[in-house]
Amino acid sequence: MAKLKVGMIGGGGPGSFFGMVHNRAIALDASRELVAGAMRTDAKAALRAAKDYGIKGYINYQAMLEAVQSGEQALDYVTIVTPNFAHYEPAKAFLQAGIPVLCEKPMTMTVAEAQDLARIVKRKKVPFVLAHTYTGHPMMMLAKQMIKDGDIGEVRKVDSWYNQGWLATDLEKSGQQQAAWRTDPKRTGISNCGGDIGTHAFVAATWVTGLGVKKVSARLNTFVKGRVLDDDFNTICELENGGTAVITATQIAVGYRNDNGFRVFGTKGSIEWHQERAESLLVRHGDGRDVTYWTGAEFDLPAEVSSYFRVPSGHNEDFFPALANLHTTIERQIRKGRGEKGIPVAFPHPGVEEGVAGMKFIKAAVDSSKKKGAWTRL
Ligand SMILES: NC(=O)c1ccc[n+]([C@@H]2O[C@H](COP(=O)([O-])OP(=O)(O)OC[C@H]3O[C@@H](n4cnc5c(N)ncnc54)[C@H](O)[C@@H]3O)[C@@H](O)[C@H]2O)c1
User: Fold this and answer.
1) Which of 31, 184, 312, 335 is the most exposed place for a label (fewest CB within 10 A)?
2) Most informative mutation of 24, 104, 133 for ligand 1 (most atoms within 8 A of CB)
3) For residue 266, is it within any domain?
4) What is the four-CA torsion angle of 279, 283, 284, 290, rounded to 10 degrees?
5) What is the pLDDT of residues 197-227, one digit of tens each?
């Protein structure tokens, strides 16, 4: 089986965060390799970053795309790891050229851009995966599968949260790279905390349950002086089945690192997952049977989930494999699309429609908060 060749947009340079995570995720299975990149805004820095990775460098995404179209550069898909403002244009260009895209979240800056990408994906039928990393954890996939199979009955209520403390002070003033662009509306969009991690909590609530949000009442706060955008994001939502979801995110929770998780309460049971102990999933049945499932091959779990395991339980698989699983999903979609035989089923990880819903959610929450929490349709 020939390795898929991957190109990366953004993610370069010693100070960058998620490019390194994608690089490892791509390499985790021997079935994909990072071969090219347009990894920084400055042309020279972009070429240097690619050289450091030992891959072919391009001065920008346009040059990389031209090389693909002229047949100079072989690429099976690209991954986009730029700040939010630089997702839409490269995603659009590669999709229009028929090249699959694994794009970072939040998908775009606006709802209109997100809808545009959705139209292109639909028209061109090109694989597109949205990098909500946590959905790649097998236990989060199992939660989705169990709820779909009716294991906890009908969903009544969801509590989905994401608490961090790293922006409890004005870190951006120090020039810290990740804080600087996330708090800048020109580079991050209309919401900082909501866009950055509220979208993860939103996807957890909606993708896991299979239920969309109809309307939202929100209160966004900016606690740190001098900051323009929210650093605290609170919503109560009406789900499409009439249930309620409480979806919150904060960056000012001092002492909290990456406290992301959810509880789903159904008519027959409840299900609970915590990112900081991602390899287990707790299912409560209300008769004293609290069952903890673990990532690992010895459990009799659905093949849709277990085909993503790599090692036996107890041999920790965590953050990097979760992102790798999203690369596995786009790889399976690509190989299946080419008619390769024996490719396992690709799990329905978030794609362009979840990206559109996420952007609508952020827009509705920002609008609602401006109107003192008025119920606002997505
Ligand atoms: N899925 C997740 O769990 C997760 C986690 C962290 C970050 N992210 C997302 O990843 C993206 C990047 O975040 P980060 O924290 O790695 O940021 P970062 O600042 O660490 O890295 C951004 C990189 O993009 C490069 N870049 C900026 N503009 C560019 C352009 N126009 N063309 C090419 N390269 C460009 C920068 O030089 C840098 O290398 C964001 O959209 C963020 O939301 C997702």
Assistant:
1) 312
2) 104
3) yes
4) -60
5) 999 999 999 999 999 999 999 999 999 999 9
